[in-house]
Design a protein that fits this description.
globular, two-stranded parallel ribbon, 2 domains, Rossmann fold
């Protein structure tokens, strides 16, 4: 039986972390990206059926960590997911998809996996459609699949996130670190190596198949608490500020990435808390990285990048 674990999107933040976690656990890894390099690297365009099939060939488990450009989720995510599913199905592999929380839309109280897909915004609807495609394919017997969901993430390699440039790159450069949204509400944050550990656990445990799981996280801090930890990790030198809705609109007039955040601002103006009870009950208590250690490692990584 194959022990080949294939990581799609292996040069992205989550994909690279998953490949590292798989290697640390002794699995044989194929790291797939458009411009692969290094041991285990495999070049493929997985937006095409031929590329997806080639990438997944011979796999026992495929980790879907790739995604279209953020601004094109609504147009491309469902079709992209369907293409990946075709490759996984042809290989006879299991699928573990890295996902987020967009499909739930605005919520009250901690988020559990049984929430309806109530998002009305285009990105949320696209993520809901992609997740539905995966779970429908499982129910139809086309593939065996599990989904692992995480909140806003940070960590070494986490460049294309709301926390990467605005918080860690800024703090590393001695500039003002900016928290997107209200600094006095709770906001679950996920650390990249912890996300990877959760996804690989799903890949190692076939009983995970057939549903979505909230990956394990630490207690949600407020934005202010998180930024205080960033300040402490910088030796007290990092200044911080909040970006409110008005400032987001102003910056978004010149910055297309910041502009896109307006669509999901409800994630930033109220408590946004993940309930990971189901994962812990099924797979045991995880080893999670303390926020202080995770923040220090992330800040050090951004400093090394210059």
């Amino acid at each position: 039986m194959s022990d080949l674990h294939v990581v799609l999107g292996a040069t992205g933040g989550i994909g690279a972390a998953v490949a590292a976690e798989l290697t640390a656990r002794g699995h044989r890894v194929r790291a797939v990206s458009r411009n692969a390099a290094g041991p285990g690297g495999f070049s493929a365009d997985i937006t095409t059926p031929e590329g997806a099939a080639a990438a997944c060939e011979g796999a026992a488990v495929v980790y879907q960590c790739a995604q279209p450009p953020y601004a094109r989720w609504a147009q491309e995510f469902p079709g992209f997911t369907d293409t990946v599913l075709s490759g996984v199905e042809k290989a006879g592999a299991r699928l573990v998809m890295a996902d987020n929380l967009y499909m739930y839309g605005p919520v009250k109280g901690p988020m559990t996996e049984n929430l309806p897909y109530a998002a009305k915004n285009p990105k949320g609807r696209a993520r809901a459609e992609a997740a539905t495609l995966v779970l429908d394919a499982h129910r139809e017997g086309r593939v065996r699949a599990a989904i692992g969901r995480a909140s806003d993430y940070f960590g070494p390699g986490g460049r294309n996130t709301t926390l990467g440039p605005s918080v860690f790159a800024a703090a590393a450069a001695g500039k003002t670190a900016r928290w997107m949204g209200d600094m006095d509400v709770l906001h679950t944050v996920s650390y990249l190596p912890d996300i990877a550990a959760g996804l690989v656990t799903l890949g190692e445990r076939p009983e995970a198949d057939g549903r979505a799981w909230h990956l394990p996280v630490l207690t949600a801090p407020t934005g202010r608490e998180f930024m205080d930890m960033v300040r402490d990790a910088s030796g007290g030198r990092a200044r911080s500020a909040a970006v409110g809705r008005g400032m987001q609109r102003l910056i978004g007039a010149f910055n297309p990435i910041v502009k896109e955040l307006g669509e999901t601002w409800y994630q930033r103006d109220r408590d946004w808390v993940v309930d990971d009870t189901a994962f812990r009950a099924a797979f045991g208590e995880p080893r999670l990285t303390p926020h202080e250690d995770a923040i220090a490692a992330t800040l050090a990584w951004f400093r090394r990048q210059g």
